[in-house]
Amino acid sequence: MSTTTTVQAYAIDPSHTNAEFVVRHMMIAKVSGRFAALAGTIEVPEGSDVPTSIQATIELESLTTSEAQRDAHLKSPDFFDAATHPQIHFRSTSIKPDGDELAVAGDLTIRGTTLPIVLKTTFEGRTTDPWGNRRIGYEAHAKISRKDFGLTWNQALEAGGVAVGDEVKIELAVEAVAQS
Asked: From CA 97, how far away is CA 63, in angstroms rounded?
């Protein structure tokens, strides 16, 4: 007798999801930004909090750092080159419990370069909203080298150091809605 596990697909709810980054600026401070337009799917087996698959797409035109000139520079060929590479993609390759967290390994594509990363992820819970929609939440974080993805622009500072740090912290707070 075979046992079939039902897998529920959840669509990422962009109005209740934050995809943010933080990078060092001028060697003395940090600048953060966020992406407002994103979509994706999280597949979770019935009775589990551990997804079997995650895929997401972020629209680079939705990037904001609350400073229009900086946003335009980040979307330019110096950084993301949003006209040529309008999206960031993530697709999981494995998801495993790791202590109190999940290790979500996957392929991240930025500016046409795909590299493996691991998102340290926590399950935040599940609920049914007032309209009867089943929702699930996760938080995740990782660190990447922007240079590894071809985002190499920088400027030397007169006092030493550079304008933009290499390490980028990625922070995600994801809410997703069960699909019929």
From this structure: 31
In tens, the pLDDT along 73-84 reads 999 998 999 999
Give the rounded distance of the alpha carbon of 138 from its chain centre. Answer: 12
**Residue 65: how many CB atoms within 10 A of its CB?**
16
Structural class in CATH, domain 7-178: mainly beta
Q: How far lies 160's CA from each of 2, 63, 155, 164, in Å?
A: 65, 29, 10, 12
pLDDT in tens, 26-79: 777 888 999 999 999 999 999 899 999 999 999 999 999 999 998 999 999 989
| CA within 13 Å, CB half, 149 | 26
Q: Which two tokens stand for residue 172?
A: 């995600």
